[in-house]
Design a protein that fits this description.
Among the domains are: 1-90 and 215-257, Rossmann fold (3-Layer(aba) Sandwich); 278-516, Rossmann fold; 555-598, no CATH class. The two termini are 45 Å apart. It has 598 residues and is of the alpha/beta class. It is globular and about 70 Å long. Strands 17-18-19-14-20-21-23-22 form an 8-stranded mixed sheet, sandwiched between helices. Helix 4 packs parallel to helix 7 and helix 16 packs across helix 17. Helices cover 34% and strands 23% of the residues. Strand 20 and strand 21 form a beta hairpin. Pfam families: ABC_tran, oligo_HPY. Keywords: ATP-binding, Cell membrane, Membrane, Nucleotide-binding, Transport.
């Protein structure tokens, strides 16, 4: 079967009504036993291609093609019954959101078993064994017990593995993977990409890997096709396209990718002497041994533990860590959307968790927040100018002065002159984030906390927003706390970086020192897992699934179970954050600097 085409499109075009074609003249093949990467930004037509493979385009879609075949089935002539039989048996799909793919009311094993029964006819013990074997093959640890669990009881990585097992249950010849790692932490993402390569080799399936992340494609694909505005502008071998691209668009995408080791290339980045990272300067605000705990099902869960932080005027402090590390909880505490269970938060010497009345209102003006999903933070019924004006009115600024300030900040973030009179739905994702940034800086705050502000954006838009943030920082004399799981983005913008794991700070240092010589083994693992856009720098073979670290940890270092250098002491004593070099602190009994690690 290897080498045969399982997907073959020639001159494939999709048109809706009288509108111009949304997909035009696409030539694309996927062979059994290979991974073809389909790169493109939002609106490029990637998802239309995927839906066409499943016969799931809307009824109003008009398809024309010289060839339109999946697994030797001519989709143009296939009726509804034939398409239904084909889905799952010939072609299956893995979606970005595993939680949305899996039925939350059914045990994982039962869901996979139903697909096996439908397409392979297995029942009873044979079906149960097939479920366990499939979970084992996609590297789910303890597959017998995992099969009896519900989706919410699995970590994000394990849920995605279960979703992949569900897609493979009917033994398809073509697997469509639509942004399968976008919602995952970098370490889990690396494991899933290695798993896809293993599936290609062990199952012999053809895989169409759809992503806007060039690093993901570089780490997994054999061949690459680049889409723009409904057309494929370039395709070929992964090294040919990503190392020696021929189209200007591919070159632009590659230039936009933030890369570890390339720091300070953004146009708006202030000069080093202007960035305010001198530790001897007075702090603008501080967190002193801050903790936040919650009661859940009769037990206490510690989301943030003993976090101390000093932020100086004019600097950018990056905060990184996997899901569940406490980053977003800390962000909510910093802007007083939540209050700490222990410790103190001070700004200008005042404990702002206790502020009331006018002092609280003044604090609200001084510290603002930009969220990951701008559409969720903007009122869809309010015109942009009204949304941006709100913090000004709350602070006592109105009339012509407020109008002038709104016009000023909208221009500053690069929006057209008529933007203020339009509604949020009329803007692209990148433009909505610009509106959210304008709203955050309108009242001239001192600090802006940014919680994953670029993770939902295409790579070229992400680069534009990073440049914008740095230009606005200089123009408005702002201080940033920049929270992200994307280490390359954090390196590009930050002066200092704080690494969190299981609610604790495990390392903090100047960005240059941390990224060039990390001292904590968790930081080293994060850096090693970042997908390189260079296909020659691929990770090794997959071996075991990531540990499911959900839930509260007991004594000792929370990272001990995953640490290559852990000793018995690490499982008993909690390491304190202490300096190993000037300005470089780490919470580790056996830090990398003592091992002579690079």
């Amino acid at each position: 079967m290897n080498g045969q085409n399982v997907l073959s499109f020639r001159d494939f075009t999709v048109r809706y009504g009288d509108a111009p074609a949304s997909v035009r003249g696409v030539d694309l093949t996927v062979r059994a036993g290979e991974i073809v990467g389909l790169i493109g930004e939002s609106g490029s037509g990637k998802t239309s291609v995927a839906m066409a493979c499943l016969g799931l385009l809307p009824k109003q879609a008009k398809v024309t093609a010289g060839r339109f075949e999946v697994c030797a089935t001519d989709l143009a002539g296939a009726d509804a019954r034939k398409l239904t039989r084909m889905r799952g048996r010939e072609v299956a799909m893995v979606f970005q959101d595993a939680m949305g793919t899996l039925d939350p009311t059914m045990r994982v094993g039962r869901q996979i078993g139903e697909v096996i029964k439908r397409h392979r006819g297995l029942k009873g013990e044979a079906q149960r064994q097939a479920v366990v074997e499939l979970l084992r093959r996609v590297r789910v640890p303890e597959p017998e017990s995992r099969a009896r669990q519900y989706p919410h009881q699995l970590s994000g990585g394990l849920r995605q593995r279960a979703a992949i097992a569900l897609a493979l249950a009917g033994e398809p010849k073509l697997l469509l993977a639509d942004e399968p790692t976008t919602a995952l932490d970098v370490t889990v993402q690396a494991e899933i990409l290695r798993l896809l390569r293993t599936i290609r080799d062990e199952f012999g399936v053809g895989i169409l890997l759809i992503s806007h992340d060039i690093g993901v494609i570089a780490q997994a694909a054999d061949r690459v096709a680049v889409m723009r505005d409904g057309e494929i502008v370039e395709q070929g071998g992964v090294e040919e396209v990503l190392l020696t691209p021929s189209s200007d668009y591919t070159k632009m995408l590659l230039r936009s990718v933030p890369r570890l080791g390339r720091r300070g290339e953004h146009a708006g980045r202030p000069a080093p002497e202007d960035r305010g990272s001198d530790p001897d300067r007075p702090a603008l605000f501080t967190a002193e041994a801050v903790g936040r705990s919650f009661r859940s099902r009769g037990r206490t869960v510690h989301a943030v533990r003993d976090v101390s932080l000093r932020v100086h005027p004019g600097e950018v402090v990056g905060v990184v860590g996997e899901s569940g590390s406490g980053k977003s909880t800390l962000a909510n505490l910093l802007v007083r959307l939540d209050r700490p269970s222990t410790g103190r938060l001070r700004m200008d010497g005042r404990d702002y968790a206790r502020l009331r009345g006018k002092r609280l209102k003044a604090f609200r003006r001084a510290i603002q927040m930009v969220f990951q999903h701008p559409a969720g933070s903007l009122n869809p019924k309010l015109r942009v100018a009204t949304s941006v004006r709100e913090p000004l009115v709350t602070g006592g600024t109105g009339g012509s002065e407020a109008r002038r300030r709104v016009e000023e900040v909208l221009a500053e973030v690069g929006l057209p002159a008529d933007a203020g009179q339009r509604l949020p739905h009329e803007f692209s994702g990148g433009q909505k984030q610009r509106i959210a940034i304008a709203r955050a800086v309108a009242a001239r705050p001192e600090v802006v906390v940014l919680d994953e502000p670029t993770s939902a954006l295409d790579v070229s838009v992400q680069a534009q927003v990073l440049d914008l943030l740095l230009r606005v920082q200089r123009a408005e004399k702002l201080t940033y706390v920049f929270i992200s799981h994307d280490l390359a983005v954090v390196q590009a913008i930050s002066d200092r970086v704080m690494v969190m794991y299981a609610g604790r700070v495990v390392e903090v240092a100047d960005a240059e020192a941390l990224f060039s010589a990390p001292a904590h083994w968790y930081t080293k693992a994060l850096l090693a897992a970042v997908p390189s856009p260079d296909p020659r720098e691929r990770g090794g073979p997959a071996d075991t699934a990531e540990e499911d670290t959900s839930g509260d940890r007991g004594q000792g270092c929370a990272f001990a179970a995953r640490c290559p250098k852990a000793e018995s002491r690490c499982r008993v004593d909690v390491p304190e954050l202490s300096e190993v070099l000037a300005g470089h602190a780490v919470a580790c009994h056996f830090p990398a600097v003592e091992e002579g690690a690079e």
